[in-house]
Design goal:
The complex is a heterotrimer of chains A (311), B (251) and C (288).
Chain A: H1 2-19, H2 22-47, H3 56-71, H4 77-99, H5 105-124, H6 126-129, H7 151-174, H8 176-186, H9 188-194, H10 198-224, H11 234-247, H12 254-272, H13 276-290, H14 295-306
Helix pairs in contact in A: 2-7, 2-10, 2-11, 2-12, 3-4, 3-10, 4-10, 7-8, 8-9, 8-10, 11-12, 11-13
Chain B: E1 10-19, E2 22-32, E3 37-41, H1 48-56, E4 63-68, E5 71-72, H2 78-83, E6 86-88, H3 101-110, H4 127-139, H5 155-168, E7 173-177, H6 185-196, E8 203-207, H7 211-214, E9 220-225, E10 228-234, H8 235-240, H9 242-249
Parallel strand pairs in B: 3-8, 3-9, 6-7, 7-8
Antiparallel strand pairs in B: 1-2, 1-4, 4-5, 9-10
Helix pairs in contact in B: 3-4, 3-5, 4-5
Chain C: H1 2-32, H2 39-56, H3 62-83, H4 92-114, E1 131-133, E2 136-138, H5 140-162, H6 164-174, H7 176-181, H8 186-212, H9 218-233, H10 238-258, H11 263-277
Antiparallel strand pairs in C: 1-2
Helix pairs in contact in C: 1-5, 1-8, 1-9, 1-10, 2-3, 2-4, 2-8, 2-9, 3-8, 5-6, 9-10, 9-11, 10-11
The chains are: A mainly alpha (311), B alpha/beta (251), C mainly alpha (288).
């Protein structure tokens, strides 16, 4: 059963570049970017038990640093990418020190407040960030001289990065450290009594999640060739969180599915309505009230039931 | 075995703890020798678990000191105390419900090893550690259930898993918080013989609220009431002591 | 000198507004252990209400508008609490997420209904002429705002500390299980407190209208300020919300005036300081 699923997945990932038109290829690229972002958030939410409402900080900051370094300071893409990720990871390390003084709702509030501060800065510091106008006219990198300007070539690039990100995060989560993390999520006091350092385990995870959030930010700014303060907004963090919860935070791949669904919904809705935020809010209410464990666990329990026998 | 200069495995010196106006630990002092089997008894609310919480580091005392083999651990966080050889079980079972028994005990072993920081290899890679977890399970008679999830097994068996986790680390001082609570008679005798078979390298301090059940496991007894030490000494002497009867008849 | 006085008064009036905003948030968090992310939207609803009502009924008394908006928002809050929040008693994270969802719904509804332009709220006519004190000229309305905040603080203090209802609230804050065990109707209390918090925010929105104007995004601007006030002042502490509001009012006003681009970082700093050295806030209890 598992192999059928994997084959289907591989197949569906290959469909866009081989068969679909530009619009769908671009949509698929966006889905991959959203998937990496959601997976990085799930390191915190699902595996670490730390719900953050400020994850957009890492996407946005990486995107802005890259945008500024390439457009204003004329740095090459390779250097800009390294510096962006380094800067974002350093910021995650710093934010982690602050946010992890609390847990649960306090942690949530601090991550929200921190990301709102960044969002406000992006708007206000117009001579640096261009404020509400955003930074436009950006370019995509050309790794090994290969241009990423066409939708199909960008898609392959995004797919390679997404696959790499997925594998790295899967290894992290299944490692001995990952077991410690899940233990701290479930029984922090017991883990401390056994010799684990709960704070340090959480902080390392926080930094790693920020790192991958930054990677998704780079892909984001390469794709759009534009960055605006809304990418740092609570709405952006909330969309990722919705993706995580809708897809199922307990599984590795669930958040990717959830992120894809949220993105598809957003695209579909934007074509017909202007009321995306309201719909996002309603979907939040729906998911939390009706399907709190998410879609992927729901579907897998459904298929188990359909195949007969007890769950 | 490590010999300390003071000769004590665990010392509690003039420990005081109060919540607002309520004093829960009032000038408690204990001296426990290596290899001793100490039972701490007292009625409900006497402050036994609070005392344990301060020894394990889950709570900070207001004043006083705690020494583990002469090392002052009063300010150390719980995880550091674990690395110094302190281990404890809890009154309310706090196991990892979604995981197998084997995984639970393996986690117990992982806590003191550098492998816990390994971000690349899974736990299954550490064959030695998993084998040792299975050996520990065998010692408590649960090896046949190793691959069962915790949620599947009976309460008495969970107590044994908890004990296994605490013992796996071969602690120097083991704190057992009401290890016999809620067990049936057969389960109780199984757990009691387990505790009795723990080697002398491990010093045992046990809390039991019901005096009769644990008495034969104890060599020395400390009676607490209202956060104070009332009687302290060899088991038979404490049982015979008038003050002990006063405390329990008054309950 | 005039600059410092004016900014000083602006700080105090902003502080007063922040108190009206964050006192409700702090109450809700303290009793229900719920970080109500809809709170900024409740405030904004009040401001939009004022914008419409005051322009439609020229000469409408702002106090009437405040009470009216307070009641309307309290009702909306109450319905939300009863229909949605109570179903999520066992899912505290879910509760926070639905308040977030609700804030999106309300803010988008406001955008849909009132459009994207900023709508100024007229200052009440009888409070438009400036006041003279010691030779300095002060905008009267701002003075009145400070007075309102102080009055609200006193009323809330009496409610919490001196009434039976307040005693029940305090019992619920300290130990919910125990309160239920002694017969305090905790669920009804929750609804009441949520309505009260929402209502104060709505009334605060009306009173803030003349200074802030109603605009899309007002909720997103106000919510983080409420968060920072509560983080600074301590969760569940009314005194903390009061002191925190004025501290943030001062920092934000002077910060924006002196270093406009860095105002947000300046807000950031006391929050970091408090979290680093006193995570329970200035007046909060450890382990809140």
């Amino acid at each position: 059963m598992k192999w059928i699923g994997i084959a289907l997945l591989a197949g569906s990932l290959l469909v866009p570049p081989l068969f679909a038109g530009d619009f769908y290829v671009n949509l698929a690229s966006q889905i991959l970017i959203a998937a990496i972002f959601a997976l990085s958030l799930n390191l915190l939410v699902g595996f670490g038990g730390m719900t953050s409402l400020g994850h957009a900080s890492y996407l946005g900051v990486a995107a802005y640093i890259c945008a500024l370094l390439t457009s204003r300071y004329g740095l090459g893409h390779g250097t800009a990418a390294v510096l962006s990720i380094a800067g974002t990871t350093a910021m995650a390390a710093f934010f982690g020190l602050i946010a992890l003084r609390a847990s649960g709702l306090g942690f949530l509030m601090i991550t929200l407040a921190l990301s709102q501060v960044l969002w406000g800065l992006a708007y206000r510091m117009s001579n640096v960030t261009n404020g509400d106008n955003g930074i436009a006219g950006l370019t995509r990198p050309a790794p090994f001289g290969i241009s990423l300007d066409s939708p199909i070539s960008f898609y392959w690039f995004a797919l390679i990065v997404a696959a790499f990100a997925f594998v790295m995060m899967a290894i992290f989560v299944s490692s001995a450290f990952g077991s410690s993390l899940k233990g701290v999520r479930d029984q922090p006091r017991r883990m401390a009594a056994l010799g684990f350092n709960p704070w340090l385990i959480r902080w390392i995870t926080f930094v790693y999640a920020g790192f991958w959030g930054g990677v998704s930010g780079l892909l984001y700014v390469y794709y759009h060739k534009y960055i605006h303060p809304t990418s740092l907004s609570t709405t952006s963090s909330a969309e990722a969180l919705l993706g995580v919860i809708a897809g199922g935070s307990g599984t590795l791949g669930g958040p990717a599915v959830g992120a894809a669904l949220v993105l598809l919904l957003k695209n579909y809705v934007s074509a017909y309505l202007e009321r995306w935020n309201m719909l996002l809010g309603l979907v939040f209410l729906f998911i939390v009230l009706v399907m709190p464990t998410g879609i992927v666990p729901g579907v897998s329990s459904l298929t188990a039931r359909l195949r007969g026998g007890p769950r | 075995m490590i010999v300390s200069t003071s000769g004590y495995a665990l010392e509690v010196v003039n420990l005081k703890k109060a919540f607002g106006g309520l004093a829960v630990t009032q000038n408690v002092s204990l001296s426990i020798r290596p290899g001793e089997r100490r039972l701490i008894i007292g009625p409900n609310g006497a402050g036994k678990t609070t005392l344990f919480n301060q020894i394990s580091g889950d709570m900070r005392p207001n004043s006083g000191a705690i020494r583990l083999f002469d090392l002052d651990i009063t300010r150390l966080p719980p995880y550091k105390r674990a690395h110094l050889g302190l281990s404890r079980t809890y009154q309310i079972i706090t196991l990892f419900a979604g995981d197998t028994i084997e995984h639970n005990v393996t986690l117990g072993l992982l806590g003191l090893r550098p492998a816990r920081w390994q971000m690349w290899r899974p736990l299954s890679f550490y064959g030695n550690m998993v084998a040792e977890a299975r050996r520990t399970l065998d010692a408590v008679g649960l090896l046949q259930l190793a691959t069962h999830p915790i949620s599947d097994i009976a309460y008495g068996e969970r107590r044994r898993v908890e004990l296994a986790m605490a013992l796996a680390q071969k602690p120097r001082v083991l704190l057992l918080d009401e290890p016999l609570a809620g067990l049936s008679n057969t389960e109780r005798s199984t757990v009691k013989s387990l505790i009795a078979s723990i080697p002398r390298e491990t010093t045992i301090i046990m809390i039991e609220h019901d005096m009769d059940t644990a008495l034969d496991l104890a060599e020395t007894v400390t009676l607490l009431n209202y956060g104070r030490v009332i009687v302290d000494g060899e088991r038979d002497a404490v049982i015979a002591d008038e003050r002990t009867r006063e405390v329990y008849l008054g309950t | 000198m005039q600059f410092w006085i004016i900014q000083g008064l602006n700080s105090l009036s902003l502080g007063g507004l922040l108190f009206l905003l964050s006192s409700g948030f702090s109450l809700i968090f303290g009793l229900m252990r719920l970080a109500n992310l809809t709170h900024g939207a409740f405030f904004m609803l009040g401001t939009y209400f004022a914008a419409t009502a005051m322009r439609a009924y020229d000469g409408l008394n702002i106090w009437v508008a405040a009470v009216g908006a307070g009641i309307a928002v309290a009702v909306i809050g109450g319905l939300f609490e009863r229909l949605v929040l109570t179903r999520l008693k066992t899912n505290p994270l879910g509760q926070v997420l639905v308040t977030l969802g609700m804030s999106f719904i309300i803010s988008d509804a406001c955008l849909m209904f009132w459009g994207g332009d900023s709508i100024p709220v007229p200052t009440p006519q009888n409070l438009q002429s400036p006041t003279r004190i010691l030779g300095f000229v002060f905008p009267t309305y701002r003075l009145v705002l400070v007075g309102c905040a102080i009055a609200a603080a006193i009323l809330l203090y009496f409610l919490i500390e001196r009434t039976r209802l307040g005693a029940m609230i305090r019992a619920g804050v300290d130990d919910r299980q125990m309160a239920r065990a002694v017969g305090i109707p905790v669920s009804n209390l929750f609804t009441l407190v949520f309505c009260l918090g929402a209502g104060i925010a709505g009334a605060g929105g009306v009173l803030g209208g003349p200074i802030l104007s109603a605009y899309p995004g007002l909720d997103a601007d106000m919510l983080p300020l409420a968060l920072i006030v509560v983080i600074l002042g301590g969760i569940g502490s009314l005194l903390g919300a009061f002191v925190g509001s004025f501290i943030i009012g001062i920092i934000y006003t002077f910060g924006t005036a002196l270093f406009p681009e860095l105002a947000y970082i300046i807000l950031f700093l006391p929050m970091i300081f408090v979290i680093a050295f006193r995570p329970q806030g200035l007046f909060g209890r450890v382990g809140a």
